Write a sequence for this structure.
């Protein structure tokens, strides 16, 4: 099962994810980190759910990294 970064139900604090930061949207450069907070309130978002990582970076989830990945 592929987890989708556009569905809020698939994302929870503690998960490792790849996000696109606002300043990286043009290049599509990904930043990997661990979810601290979920910032999007709607159940889904076409560009990805917005999260804050433990590092403090904020961006939209593009990929959810499987456990041990």
């Amino acid at each position: 099962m592929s987890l989708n970064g556009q569905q809020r139900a698939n994302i929870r604090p503690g998960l490792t994810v790849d996000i696109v930061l606002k300043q990286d949207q043009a290049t599509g450069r990904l930043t990997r980190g661990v979810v601290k907070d979920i910032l999007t309130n709607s159940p889904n978002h076409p560009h990805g759910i917005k999260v804050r990582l433990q590092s403090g970076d904020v961006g939209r989830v593009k990929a959810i990294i499987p456990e041990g990945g």
Observations:
- Residues 8-64 form a domain with the SH3 type barrels. fold (CATH 2.30.30).
- The two ends are 15 Å apart (CA to CA).
- The longest strand covers residues 30-38.
